[in-house]
Amino acid sequence: MGNLVPSRWGRPLEQYIGDYDIIEARQLFVTVWVDQIQQVKSDIEKVSTVTDSNHPHNITILTLKSILRLSYSPNYLHLLGSPLLFRGCIRLMASVKTSGKTSPFSYEFGYLCFRILTISLSVHLLEVGECLPYTIARMLDHLGIETLVTLSQCIARLMKGLIGHGAGPGRETYNCLFGWSTCPKHPTKDIVVTQLDARTLSGILYEDRHAFLKAMASTFSPGLSAVIYLIWRDVCYTRSFNEPCSTKLVIPFFEIYWRYLLVATDDQYDTLYGIQTWDLEFWRGLKPGSLAADLEESRDLMQTFINRLTQTAPHLYEPFPLEAITAALYFLSIHAQTGCESLLPRVLAVTIERIWDALERKEESNATSVDIIMGSFDFFGDLLEPLIPENSLAKEASMMRVINELVKGNLLDLIGRGIFLLNPVSFDCTAQVAGEEQTRNLNFLRASQSFCALLPKLAPRAVVDNGFENLDSVWWRVHRQLQFLEILQPAAKGPTPQSQYGFYRYDVPLLV
Question: Which domain of life is it from (predicted)?
Answer without folding.
Answer: Eukaryota
